[in-house]
C-alpha cells in the first residue's frame, strides 16, 4: 500500500523532528521533507508534491496562511492540515479561507494528528470539537477591511488616534470613524476590550 507522503512546516527544529518521528513510526505514512519557513514550504512542495502538508501558522516572513494560499493558487488540489498554537476563531477562519482542510492545536493528543492526516488525505475535513466551537463563536459580519486591520494593529501597539493618523496618513476624524467600526464589529465597548478581543481571536499577534 502506498504511504501518505507528508511535508512538515514548522520553524522549531525540535517540533519538526518530533512530528516526523510520529509520522514515520506509522506503517501508512512517511515524511518526505521538512521546511522552517513559508517560502521554503512553497519550494519544497514544488519539489516533492506531498499528499498532505502539515503547516504551522506562525512562521517568519511569509505566514502559514500565506504559504497555503500561494501553494493552492498553483496547485488547487493541494491538501493541508494546520498544526499550530493559535486557537482564535479568526485564525481558524483565515486558515480555512486559505484552503486548509484540517486544523489541530499543538496541545491536542497526537492521535488526532494522525486522524487528521488520514481524513484529509482521503478528501475529507478534520475539525475537532474545540475548533468547531471556536469557529461557531465567530461573530457574523465581523470581517475587518485592510485599513481597519491596520488601525487595529496600531491600537494594539498603544498608539493614539492622532498617532495612528500620522502613521497611516489619514485624518484623526477618519481614525475615529475606523475605531468606531472596529468596536462595533468586535462587539467591544471600548479600546481596551477591542485590543483584548483582537488578541484572543487572532486578529492581531505580537
TrEMBL record:
GO terms for molecular function: DNA binding. Signal peptide: none annotated. The keyword Iron does not apply. It holds the Pfam family Response_reg. Residues 137-202 form the HTH luxR-type domain. Residues 5-121 form the Response regulatory domain. It comes from the Bacteria. Keywords: DNA-binding, Phosphoprotein. GO terms for biological process: phosphorelay signal transduction system; regulation of DNA-templated transcription. The modification 4-aspartylphosphate is found at residue 56. This is DNA-binding NarL/FixJ family response regulator. It comes from Tunturiibacter gelidiferens. The lineage of its organism: Bacteria, Pseudomonadati, Acidobacteriota, Terriglobia, Terriglobales.
